[in-house]
Task: inverse folding
C-alpha cells in the first residue's frame, strides 16, 4: 500500500495509470478531504439521479457517525458458499495493497472503505426476490461522505486502468463539484399510501413453528429461529430518502442502513451490533429475549421487569451469551462480559441486552470475527450448524440479506457490522419486510406469531404502512 501525502488527486491518477501499465492491474487512487458540514440525507439524495441503485447509507446509533457512499468504483461479489468471508477479505486486501492513498486525516471510516454484507445462509436455494444481491456483495464507492463526531470528510475513489487517459481527472473533478453543489439542496419527502398487505403463508408458518418446537422437546437442538415475510404494495414508488428519514427519527438507538443494488434497496434499522473492530479492540452484543413497550411509563416498567425475570427469555438470552463468549475467547486474548443482562428499550420493543468487549488476538481480522459470530443463536439457533440446517429445511422464506451481517471495513482493517434485522427489501412500489423469533421447547406458535407482528412495526412505520 502506497500512501502519498500533500499531493493532488490529479497527480495520483497519472501515477496510477503508469503503475497499471507496468502491472496490468487495476489501481485504486483514493483521496480524503476535510470539507464543510453536510446534511447526511441531502448528500444521499444528491446522488440519486446519477448514482441511483448504487448508493449506501450507514448511521451508528450514537448519531455522531455517518457514512454515505455514492456510485461504485469496484464491486466485490461472490456466489461461493464456502470460504466467502475469506474470499471477500483477500480480494479487498489485494485491491488495497496496490492502492495509492492520499490521507492526511487518518480518521476511521474515511479513505478507501468497502460497504456491504453477506446473505444469512449461502446454501439456501435463492429465489427471484433477492436476484439483485449476490450472497456476498460489497461496494467501494466513487464518493463517500463520512461524518465523524461532527466533522465531515469526503473520500474520492478512482480506479485507473492502463489504457486510461490522465485527462480522466477532469471528469472526476466535475462529478465531484456537481455532487458537492447538489448536496446542499433541501430534500423533499414523498408520501405513499399502502394499498395491499399480504402475509406470506402465515398458517403454514405457525405449523412450522409447532413442528420445530415438538422436535426441540426430543432432539439435540436447543433453539431454532424462524422468520416470516410480509409483502407490501404502495400506490407509488417508495422513496428511499423518505424511509431513511423516518428511521432516523423513530429508531435513534439503532444502526440505520440502506444498501442499493441494481435498483433494489435493502434497508432497515437494526438494534443489534454483530461486531466492531477498532484497532485491536473488539466490541460485540448479545441481544435476545424481547417484549413490547408499555402504553405508559408504569406499564412499560412492569413489562421490562417481567422480561428481566422471565425464564424462557433469560434462557434464550443465555444461549447467545454462551455462544458469543466462546467465539470471542477463540479470537481474543481478553474478554469482558457482565454477569446479568440489562434492558435495551426501542420505540416499539424492548430487549435483553449484554455488551461484550475483547482484545483481538494477533492476525484476528474483522471478517474473521464476523465469520465466527454469524449467525448468533439470536438469529439462527443452537447448536449453530444443525439449527441453520433446520431453518433451511422448514423455512419457506428466502432470507437473503435479512439477519445476515451488514456493515463496512476500511483500509486499515477497522470497521463494524450489524445484524440486519428490522429490515426490508424495497423494489419500486413494493417491499418485503421480515421478522423472526427464537423457538425453544416451551414456545407457543400463536405467541411467536404475535412477537413477529411487533417486530414488523419499525419497518411498517418507516415505509408509511402505519401511522
Result:
Amino acid at each position: 500500500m502506497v500512501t502519498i501525502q500533500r499531493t493532488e488527486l490529479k497527480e495520483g491518477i497519472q501515477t496510477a495509470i503508469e503503475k497499471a501499465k507496468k502491472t496490468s492491474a487495476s489501481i485504486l487512487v483514493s483521496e480524503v478531504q476535510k470539507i464543510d458540514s453536510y446534511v447526511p440525507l441531502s448528500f444521499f439524495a444528491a446522488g440519486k439521479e446519477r448514482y441511483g441503485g448504487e448508493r449506501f447509507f450507514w448511521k451508528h446509533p450514537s448519531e455522531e457517525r455517518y457514512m454515505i457512499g455514492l456510485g461504485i468504483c469496484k464491486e466485490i461479489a461472490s456466489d461461493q458458499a464456502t470460504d466467502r468471508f475469506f474470499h471477500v477479505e483477500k480480494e479487498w486486501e489485494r485491491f488495497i495493497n496496490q492502492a495509492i492513498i492520499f490521507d492526511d486525516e487518518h480518521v476511521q471510516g474515511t479513505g478507501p472503505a468497502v460497504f456491504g454484507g453477506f446473505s444469512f445462509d449461502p446454501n439456501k436455494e435463492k429465489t427471484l426476490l433477492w436476484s439483485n444481491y449476490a450472497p456476498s456483495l460489497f461496494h467501494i464507492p466513487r464518493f463517500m461522505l463520512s461524518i465523524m463526531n461532527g466533522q465531515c470528510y469526503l473520500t474520492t475513489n478512482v480506479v485507473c486502468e492502463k489504457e486510461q487517459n490522465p485527462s480522466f481527472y477532469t471528469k472526476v473533478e466535475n462529478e465531484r463539484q456537481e455532487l458537492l453543489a447538489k448536496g446542499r439542496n433541501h430534500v423533499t419527502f414523498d408520501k405513499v399510501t399502502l394499498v395491499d398487505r399480504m402475509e406470506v403463508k402465515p398458517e403454514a408458518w405457525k405449523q412450522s413453528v409447532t413442528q420445530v418446537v415438538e422436535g426441540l422437546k426430543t432432539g439435540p437442538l436447543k433453539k431454532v429461529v424462524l422468520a416470516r415475510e410480509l409483502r407490501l404494495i404502495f400506490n407509488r414508488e417508495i422513496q428511499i430518502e423518505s424511509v431513511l428519514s423516518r428511521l432516523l427519527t423513530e429508531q435513534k438507538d439503532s444502526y440505520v442502513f440502506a444498501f442499493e443494488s441494481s435498483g433494489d434497496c435493502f434497508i432497515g434499522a437494526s438494534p443489534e451490533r454483530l461486531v466492531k473492530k477498532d484497532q485491536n479492540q473488539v466490541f460485540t452484543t448479545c441481544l435476545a429475549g424481547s417484549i413490547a413497550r408499555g402504553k405508559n411509563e408504569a406499564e412499560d416498567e412492569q413489562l421490562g421487569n417481567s422480561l428481566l425475570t422471565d425464564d424462557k427469555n433469560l434462557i434464550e438470552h443465555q444461549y447467545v451469551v454462551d455462544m458469543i463468549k466462546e467465539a470471542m475467547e477463540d479470537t481474543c486474548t481478553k474478554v469482558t462480559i457482565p454477569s446479568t443482562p440489562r434492558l435495551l428499550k426501542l420505540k416499539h420493543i424492548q430487549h435483553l441486552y449484554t455488551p461484550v468487549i475483547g482484545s483481538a488476538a494477533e492476525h484476528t481480522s474483522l471478517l474473521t470475527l464476523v465469520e465466527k459470530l454469524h449467525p448468533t443463536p439470536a438469529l439462527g439457533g443452537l447448536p449453530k450448524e444443525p439449527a441453520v440446517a433446520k431453518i433451511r429445511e422448514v423455512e419457506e422464506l428466502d432470507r437473503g440479506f435479512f439477519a445476515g451481517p451488514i456493515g463496512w471495513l476500511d483500509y486499515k482493517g477497522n470497521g463494524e457490522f450489524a445484524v440486519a434485522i428490522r429490515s426490508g427489501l424495497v423494489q419500486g412500489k413494493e417491499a418485503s419486510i421480515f421478522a423472526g423469533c427464537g423457538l425453544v421447547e416451551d414456545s407457543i406458535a400463536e405467541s411467536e406469531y404475535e412477537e413477529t407482528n411487533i417486530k414488523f412495526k419499525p419497518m411498517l412505520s418507516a415505509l408509511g404502512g402505519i401511522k
